[in-house]
Amino acid sequence: MITVIRIGHRPFRDKRITTHVALVSRAFGADSILVDEKDETLENTVNRVTENFGGNFSIKSGVNWKKEFRDFKGVRVNLSMYGVNVDDRIENIRMATEGKDMIILVGAEKVPIDAYNIADFNIAISNQPHSEVSALAMFLDRFYKGKELEKKYEGKMNVIPMDHGKLVKFIPDEQQSMKILYESGADERIISHVTTVYNLSMAMGRYANADMKLIAAGSLLHDIGRTKTNGISHAVAGADLLREKNIDELIVRIVERHTGAGILPEEAKKLGLPDRNYIPETLEEKIVAQADNLVSGKNIVTLAETLERYKLQGLEEPAKRIKKLQEELSKACGKELDEIAMELNN
Ligand code: SAM
Question: Relative to the CA of 107, which ligand 1 atom is closest?
């Protein structure tokens, strides 16, 4: 674990640069930042970035820097133009941090002499004066040998790298999902159905330790295609509609694969659906599909009732797959899905 400690922060003067120190910490592989002066605005700004762009980065302001730095259990690094050049010490730091945590101190104006005396390593990124932002970025990059740039973040906003133009895919929260539904013309029948599917999916998701932000958006949006058609192609219509709105593929696939317990390629061909994958693969795709199977209109029904409905329509094979999915998810939840559904009904 790597902690950055930022000292000498003056909330009025340094707002932007301390924000940048925090953002560099987060983007270049540190796990948390401590800031000496209390600054709630700064905390909110950084937390919002983490919430939107992902990861587990944390920020705490209003700490006693000397105590935090001195009592830190691990390796203490002070970044300073008066230190030893990074390339002459980075191997020693890598060795010293094996199996240990590290704290990296950066200053603002004049750094008190105590920081130099407490540090295990005073490290310079050249002995020329420049900035805590660049010093921190270069130090972390040297420490991780550039590997920090490969880290994957799964946030609500995901940047799709582009040579030209810009594209950000996003995972809407509950409020945003409802807004998308209403803007697309969803009527009360759709809203009441997706609300029940949402409640059941969320309950199942909690038992199965699923990604709840995917479950929330996926379940609320799974039937958005019904604003276009009520036929078998409503899942495709919904997926296409969401792709146009730059909704993340993780959500789009939940929508596209929610029919029954999935549609096999040969069935899809017969039904005249475009050549795509309609089999739910991720835990979240499976949960939303099955929750939908266990909801009729706005009511939760039992698996037996659902299977009966399928069989009456001559859909024996899809019914078998729904039964199998029920078993798989009951195992993943550590509880029978019918029981989870019953808890919600009571
Ligand atoms: N003159 C100040 C002092 O007495 O330490 C430094 C002020 S400088 C604007 C703010 C911070 O940037 C420093 O505390 C240090 O963390 C970082 N910094 C600036 N130049 C650096 C360098 N060449 N190498 C490493 N860190 C540097």
Answer: 14
